[in-house]
Amino acid sequence: MSKEQFTLLNESGKKRASNSGKHLILFNDKSGSMSGGPFNTLIEGCLQLSDSLFPEDGEKAFESVDVCFYDNNTSIKYPKSRDEYIKIIKNEKIGGSTNFSACFDYINKKVKECQDGDEISMVFFTDGEDTCSNNIA
Asked: Could you list the mean pLDDT of each consecutive 10-residue stretch along the chain, which spans 137 residues?
């Protein structure tokens, strides 16, 4: 079967984008232990994703891409274009401890914002363990 044989419809029966309801969250550890090579590798990896996440000649795979840099806290950005995404990635700096709880709080918030049937994909780029939270199960 070819791709053209399928049409995704929304609840009102209108054609919807194939990325509708698909969300990606990139969690990027910027804690002090990531200093040097690990953080440079993280940045390079994120930059290599830019063409896939924001193709110039086609539909994006995800309706939304949330970029979260975290240390003690989270900093969430919502790029709408490849250039905006690259600027966000290149402008981040190292600092702080590793706080997964702040990331989990954002995941809970995102889940509550989504509609039934939405898909959330998450990628964590990190080198270690949470150093801020005592009660993560």
From this structure: 40 65 96 94 96 87 95 94 96 92 94 92 90 67
Where does 19-54+61-125 sit in CATH, by number?
3.40.50.410
DSSP-derived pairing of the beta strands 22-29 and 74-77: unpaired
Q: Per-domain residue ranges for the chain?
A: 19-54+61-125
If we measure between CA atoms, which residue out of 85, 90, 99 comes closest to residue 26?
Answer: 85
Amino acid at 26: L
Strand order in the sheet with 119-125: 74-77, 64-70, 22-29, 119-125
Q: Which residues are CB-neighbours of 13 under 8 A, at least 6 positions away?
A: none
CA 120 to chain centroid: 9
DSSP state of 36: T
Across 90-104, b (16+ Cβ under 10 Å) vs e yields eebebebebbbebbe
- What is the rounded CA–CA span in Å between residue 137 and residue 126? 18
| Burial profile 8-46: b = 16 or more Cβ within 10 angstroms, e = fewer | eeeeeeeeeeebebbbbbbbbbbbebbeeebbeebbeeb
